[in-house]
Amino acid sequence: HRPWPGLLAAYRRWLPVTDQTPALTLCEGNTPLIRSHRLSEQLHANVYFKYEGANPTGSFKDRGMVLAVAKAAEAGSQVVICASTGNTSASAAAYAARAGLKAVILIPDGYVAMGKLAQAMMYGAEVVAVRGNFDEALAIVRELAERLPVTVVNSVNPFRLEGQQTAAFEICDALGRAPDHLCIPVGNAGNISAYWKGFCAYHAAGIVGNLPRMQGFEAEGAAALVRGEPVDHPETFATAIRIGRPASWHLAVAAVQESNGGIRAVSDDEIRHAYKLIAREGVFAEPASAASVAGLLQLHAQGVLQPGETVVCVLTGNGLKDPDNAIQHSDRAPLVTEASTDAVQTALERWL
Ligand code: F0G
């Protein structure tokens, strides 16, 4: 019996891990690939969810953060810093705590889901809420890193993308091939770039014989790549991808072009619809994650998806991260009754 050793050990030969790299892990990775019975049936395809909410801090960020923090520790750094819409900060704070480093995180004041803020605070990070958006916070982080002895662990740190490739490896390992389409939300555009790098690495090594079409989806109010220019005032209720100046712009565009995929915009209404649809199948993902499923529905409506194709939708973050949106968007409020069997039965009769 061997327990899952975490990503640095499991995919060591694919990662820049040396004997000097600390064996950092919170047992991240190895997340479920869940078949969506309903979408498969509706769209006449094989649809899977890659459920990244099952990572230790509840998002895909852990895949890149474990490597970025391990390499920071290896280099003798004592402080990591990042800007974040919430998930990166939760992950940075957790891995810094685990490695014995300090974490400084900059978040856009008022635009981070409650669960993510709670995580960063509990893991012991120094939290700075700036009166501005993510793009402004990231610009500040990059400037600060020139003045202070800190390591930036945003996805501009190349170790982040190296680590995030492992999700593509896991999908190929599970399916025995690459999917035909990989549907993924796009914010700062790091993850789509990392997946493409991972698929290409497995393909080049002959482990899979095919490559997926990379289908990225931005929120309509923050769709810089779709518009071809930065968005100065990005807006969407999916706060994780409320980003107007994606840092990995060129890598993402290359991934889409090389794979014959696309970047499309999904509206907040489409995201909301998908958010509920996924949950009604027993899978709880945060709003930004639902952009992948909203996008898949667009691909189907536009005839891009062919019958029988295999699609993986990346569900990037756990639904528990954002309880406010969950409660606000659920159709049913709890029934409140007296504490008697009769009262509960009466209340239920209307529903059963
Ligand atoms: N989904 C979730 C849940 C995210 O938190 C993010 C990014 C994305 C998708 C988009 O990924 O940036 O690689 O294109 N969150 C970052 C953060 C920006 O600070 O947590 P991307």
Quick overview:
By secondary structure, the chain is an alpha/beta fold. 43% of the residues lie in helices and 14% in strands. Strand 4, helix 5 and strand 5 form a beta-alpha-beta unit.
Gyration radius, in Å: 20 Å
Give helix % range. Answer: 40-55%
The spatial strand order of the largest sheet comes to 1-2-10-7-8-9
What is the rounded distance between the termini? 46 Å
> What structural class do the secondary elements suggest?
alpha/beta
The amount of beta strand, in percent, is 5-15%
Largest sheet: 6 strands, mixed
Instruction: Calculate the mean pLDDT score and round it.
Output: 98
Low-confidence regions: none
Number of helices: 15
Order of helices and strands: HEHEHEHEHEHEHHEHEHHEHHEHH
Number of strands: 10
* Inertia-based shape: globular
Question: Which helices and strands appear, and what pairs or packs with what?
Answer:
Elements: H1 7-10, E1 33-35, H2 37-43, E2 46-51, H3 61-74, E3 79-83, H4 87-99, E4 102-108, H5 114-122, E5 126-130, H6 134-147, E6 151-152, H7 158-164, H8 166-175, E7 181-185, H9 190-204, E8 213-219, H10 224-227, H11 249-258, E9 262-266, H12 268-279, H13 287-301, E10 310-315, H14 323-329, H15 341-349
Parallel strand pairs: 2-10, 3-4, 3-6, 4-5, 7-8, 7-10, 8-9
Antiparallel strand pairs: 1-2
Helix pairs in contact: 3-4, 3-7, 4-5, 7-9, 8-9, 9-11, 12-13
